[in-house]
Amino acid sequence: MQEQAGKETAANLEPEMRNAVMEPKTDIKSLTLEELTAEVTALGEKPFRAKQLYQWMHQKLAREYDEMTNLPKAFREKLREKYTYTAHTLVERLVSEVDGTEKYLFGLADGNVIESVLMRYHFGNSVCISSQVGCRMGCRFCASTIGGLTRNLLPSEMLDQVYAIQRLTGERVSHLVVMGTGEPLDNYDNLLRFIRLLSDENGLNISQRNITVSTCGLVEKIRELAQERLQITLALSLHASSQEKRKALMPVAYQYELNDVIDACRYYFEQTGRRVTFEYSLVGGVNDSQEDAERLAKMLGGMSCHINLIPVNPIRERDYTQPDRQVVIAFKNKLEKYGKAVSIRREMGRDISGACGQLRKGYMEQAR
Ligand code: SAH
After folding, report:
1. Above pLDDT 90, what percent of the chain?
2. How far is CA 106 from the centre of its chain?
3. Considering the entire predicted model, what is its pTM?
């Protein structure tokens, strides 16, 4: 193949530059303390510098090297040359007048935008993060998936959502849910690294018991996750009481049989001792009948779990509507008759584009 004249390909550059083109810089905030210590000592610095640097990134939540005042200037320069340092820019912050919920749009280094949510509860502050830019799962009622998947988020870019919110509010984040845009188990390695860094005692030290990962049900990945020795909660997006109905709402159901998904959840409980949460978005006239409730209860029979009912949040692109309140209550009552633990999710931040992916989508349409 002929080289294009003037184009910067690796072949026509000086050796030093060639390296720069071929080897992308390491993303420093995604390294564990152990890895960071190896990097720092390889640069000729004492190991305690790694600990200081780690604390600047993960406890003091520094946005740039220049904030790290107890690190020698020459060392900071070396770091700047060798590593990328992620930090989100704040594009928009919406505060709900109803319940204090806050929605954030953050800008990434490559120009993409993602959204995160802060919810204030009596037990503490919970942040909902995105795990990908866009999503390829195609759930019919979800706004996040309409433009498809753009790319995975790095561990650091997941952390930065929490870090930016804690910095901006000055309030401690104690709980985390991975329920924003994206399918977390479709970005498995980065997700795991993120969880380990977030729950690290040298970082924000958020208890794994306060971390929930929500998935549309990638069976192999659920089984893999069960063996990671984590104490996190798994939430499974079920949304239907039969394989056929699930296919109509979630294309991923063409890939996995409902029975296999439920079996994987049982396995998760056996391996971790953590009770699985089943999320069920109630869509008016689609999955909200008494028969649905009965089938659902039987399907989860004998399983130690929790069911979370979410009246569907209507999005402009689809004509799905919420069931009437009595229908929601009747659905809950039916499940409880079968001995199931059920809650109806409180709607947070309804006045500020509550549903998953709506804020980002609105922004992208405006930008266009
Ligand atoms: N991909 C993951 C996590 C992101 S979605 C998953 O599928 O679980 C988080 C939860 O919000 C999922 O249960 C999803 O099905 C649900 N959800 C998405 N859009 C919704 C809407 N418009 N109304 C109600 N729930 C919705």
Report:
1. 83
2. 14
3. 0.92
Higher-confidence position of 361 and 28:
28
CA distance 182 to 139: 11
Residue 3 has pLDDT above 50, yes or no: no
Q: What single letter denotes the amino acid at residue 86?
A: T
Tokens of 216: 């549309």
Q: How confident is the model at residue 354, as a pLDDT?
A: 59
Residue type at 57 in one-letter notation: M
What values do phi and psi take at 317, rounded to 5?
A: -75, -15
What is the C-alpha to C-alpha distance for residues 135 and 201, in angstroms, rounded to an integer? 31
Contacts of 99 (CB under 8 A, 6+ apart): 120, 348, 349
| Cβ-Cβ contacts under 8 Å for 230 (sequence gap 6 or more) | 195, 208, 272
Helices (H), the chain: 15-22, 33-42, 47-58, 73-82, 155-169, 188-198, 219-226, 243-249, 258-272, 290-299, 325-337, 358-367
Determine the Cα–Cα distance for residues 111 and 33; give it in Å rounded to an integer.
29
**Cα separation values, 224 from 132, 194, 213, Å:** 20, 16, 14
- Maximum pairwise Cα distance, the chain: 74
pLDDT for 182 equals 98
pLDDT at 92: 95
Express each pLDDT in 12-28 by its tens digit. Answer: 455 455 454 557 899 99
Q: Which atom of ligand 1 is nearest to the CA of 139?
A: 15
The DSSP element (H or E) to which 262 belongs, if any, is helix 258-272
Three-state secondary structure call for residue 83? strand
User: Cα(142) to centroid of ligand 1, in Å?
Assistant: 6
Residue whose CA lies nearest to ligand 1 atom number 1: 183
Sequence-separated (6 or more) residues with CB below 8 Å from residue 186: 131, 132, 135, 136, 137, 149, 152, 218, 221
139 annotated active-site: no
How far apart are the CA of 11 and the centre of ligand 1, in A? 46
Q: How far apart, in whole angstroms, are the C-alpha atoms of residue 13 and residue 212?
A: 47
- CA 158 from chain center: how many Å? 7
Please indicate whether residue 201 is annotated as part of the active site: no
Which tokens hold the place of 173?
């984040």
